[in-house]
Amino acid sequence: MAVVTEPIKVTVWNENFHETDDKYREAMAQRYPEGIHGAIAAGLREVLGEAVETRTATLDQPEHGLTDEVLASTDVLTWWGHVKHGDVDDAVVAKVHEAVLGGMGLLVLHSGHFSKIFKRLLGTSCALAWRSKDDTELVWTVAPGHPIAEGVPHPIRIPEQEMYGEYFDIPEPDELVFISSFTGGEVFRSGCTFRRGRGRIFYFSPGDQDFPVYHHPDIKRVLANGVRWAAPEQRSGRTAPGLVNMKVPDFVGGSLNPEAGE
Amino acid sequence: MAVVTEPIKVTVWNENFHETDDKYREAMAQRYPEGIHGAIAAGLREVLGEAVETRTATLDQPEHGLTDEVLASTDVLTWWGHVKHGDVDDAVVAKVHEAVLGGMGLLVLHSGHFSKIFKRLLGTSCALAWRSKDDTELVWTVAPGHPIAEGVPHPIRIPEQEMYGEYFDIPEPDELVFISSFTGGEVFRSGCTFRRGRGRIFYFSPGDQDFPVYHHPDIKRVLANGVRWAAPEQRSGRTAPGLVNMKVPDFVGGSLNPEAGE
Amino acid sequence: MAVVTEPIKVTVWNENFHETDDKYREAMAQRYPEGIHGAIAAGLREVLGEAVETRTATLDQPEHGLTDEVLASTDVLTWWGHVKHGDVDDAVVAKVHEAVLGGMGLLVLHSGHFSKIFKRLLGTSCALAWRSKDDTELVWTVAPGHPIAEGVPHPIRIPEQEMYGEYFDIPEPDELVFISSFTGGEVFRSGCTFRRGRGRIFYFSPGDQDFPVYHHPDIKRVLANGVRWAAPEQRSGRTAPGLVNMKVPDFVGGSLNPEAGE
Amino acid sequence: MAVVTEPIKVTVWNENFHETDDKYREAMAQRYPEGIHGAIAAGLREVLGEAVETRTATLDQPEHGLTDEVLASTDVLTWWGHVKHGDVDDAVVAKVHEAVLGGMGLLVLHSGHFSKIFKRLLGTSCALAWRSKDDTELVWTVAPGHPIAEGVPHPIRIPEQEMYGEYFDIPEPDELVFISSFTGGEVFRSGCTFRRGRGRIFYFSPGDQDFPVYHHPDIKRVLANGVRWAAPEQRSGRTAPGLVNMKVPDFVGGSLNPEAGE
């Protein structure tokens, strides 16, 4: 009496700058020995087990590791970037954009709020207020029945974290799942979902290069929930709906035309 | 490399009036030999197989078949009623209401738009325009990435169906999945989702006692998709979030209080 | 080159319990010498001037001051209640409900979240977490282009206020305008809009019997903005859309029926 | 007892191609002697009188008529384009984008769905299905309390119009105001609102170069309602919220920081 489901193929993308730059490398090696991408991928495997297959891709690879083949076989892409957003090739961004409209899930993480792909999908500046200074972050669930909030304490407590505050210039989310508060009294819409085309997008702000947030068990859980929620029902052969306009054949007289729109 | 999931326990509710009334019985026996509830349950099993377990409940049973035990072991309840809405016991409605807020999924079908439970959950009159007169209904998908629209043609064509038209007095749906048109030129928001408390609600209008709509393969598919979408992650031990206000313990000085809200 | 608009007729409702009860009367007379309703009405007149006409109504009046005549000539009703929700007559609640669906604006204030009318309109428990204990509340704007946020600082600072915290069991608001944080680290969706039928509803949580919040200039401004936003375009002769189902006349052949739905 | 409001400054933009091209000029001169832009501007003045001031701008003008001065003094911009979307300068699109995020209202009309500015603001392909072939369009109101639907019949009947059908690849609208049906049985979300940054956007599909839709009294009314709804409260000195990230000053100890975010 069991149901068998294919594992979700996740590609974890990272600009991989702090991990490789002389200024940050040593501290990062302590905090994230396999890079932020390695930590995120390990967390997904830890929570989801055989329900997930992970691989990673980084900015320095050809086509940033996001070739047509990789995108075509990716159910959910997670995106982490911070200071190298400008170095991401517009052609790759366009391909990722099209893949999302075609149904690929996308998790945009933390400073990825200012990535080209997130701004392009949302159409706003995606700017926010911030401060990196010993804040504690409390992550409160405001949609307790949402799959992404499943099994998460109320609040999640992150002892040390960068502050992200409102106003966060995004469209009204389709669903607001989490709101965070910080020691300074700021608030932030820290967990938001958006549907664009056939694709599902989850933005989740906790997670930083300076704090070991991706090792936090509740954060791992949220990311795993997010991946499951964003994964398309149809795992391959996706095409973007309506990237071009579609001329519909004539109808006959005043009668209904059941072929219309096909 | 497989993931095992528990089957979804569905209770299919029907007022069971047309099936038993002298005026309609004979025609109904031709159209729905096992009742509308029997047809809906069979359709779910046909599409979902071992992923679902179904039982039925009807108005004439003690507590309308919706005892505490039944509700506690129901993941998703489907509701079909038409002329006997007024006979549904308010105490049962209150229990179903609480169960939905606690996480039980609810599919409200066709004329169930005027049921006590739907009006109570939505807070509006839920009235609409209608005509029972040889219309063809076309059901167009406006959220192609939504799990409920998975595998459904665009449009679904229902050769004969009662017309339901706007204005449909409901709150703006959380997600609008389907819009229908009818031969008379009317339109209707025929597939709508709502979250209330921890519960997910899907209203779907196609389906009628006078037409064999619940045997239509695409309609079976939509109902099966709806059941999967509405099923809670947590399949038992659900409690409504916050049916009463909760006094939060004092905080200490100006410091954060991680226990708050638990 | 000027546009002339009719003044908005506002009825300010208060249960008027704390103002008259032996235990609270003296403190209330200091804080709100004309009652909470008097303070709210005065604030509206101060901000809106000739653009508004106010009157008040209280629980102890016949029909709680909300007769058919009063409701028919009210553009926007504001509702404040706390411990006497249970004493509000269901018949009056039903009339207010119908008036809102017909287009009357409604502002539900602070502890009014647990009023019969708010629960009936929203369909959820409307429960929340709370603590009355020296919190400071910061009210952050998350929809800076919304008319209700016009002219409001970011954040509004309320030095002393009762804490209201998540999870607040309401449907996802149509628009989320404000999020508050409190000294204890809690967050709350403190400014929310909902459309129900033809009516516009604004819930705003700041405001309490124990603190002089309704004298705060920014809070007065938000309430005035809320009244302007909630006021219907059509100031009289409103009828609820579709409180009953409407049978639509036959159409002719396969042709369009322009009269449908009228 | 009157309220005085400043007139709304509207700039009506048109690519002005069909009006000037040899192939279409003669027919257009019959249908729209002052161009589509002239007809739209005249309709706004007819309905709104002294509440509006209009001017027009076209593709062939320097900076397409949308200089910094024009944008800075525009409360609401209306956009009509069809076959010349590609000729609109990206630099002008960027300025319009910024103006909208800063609070300028935007009405995107008919084939403007495929304009650069609309795609950029929405982040999706904005593609749809279409047929130009003797359809009648019925425009049904699904948000009767919305200011944009004020005074509009249900349905609006447009005897001859191009068909626009679903799937329309847009984000879920913040508010869905109108749904249209066509002779062929197709449906379309024909009236949609979106908030982006401080700006309000209204997309409205009825209106075409081949049919005299902008002379239809109900369509004029909808456009006038749309302009009033989209006009910002603050008529000048607007700045986009958060086009850049904002570093927030330190907080002191564990205490609240009322200056945060300013």
UniProtKB/TrEMBL annotation, chains A, B, C, D:
One Pfam family named in its UniProt record: ThuA
Annotated ranges, domain ThuA-like: 9-230
InterPro entries: Class_I_gatase-like, ThuA-like, Trehalose_catabolism_ThuA_prok
Entries under SUPFAM superfamilies matching the protein: Class I glutamine amidotransferase-like (SSF52317)
Protein name per Swiss-Prot or TrEMBL: Trehalose utilization protein
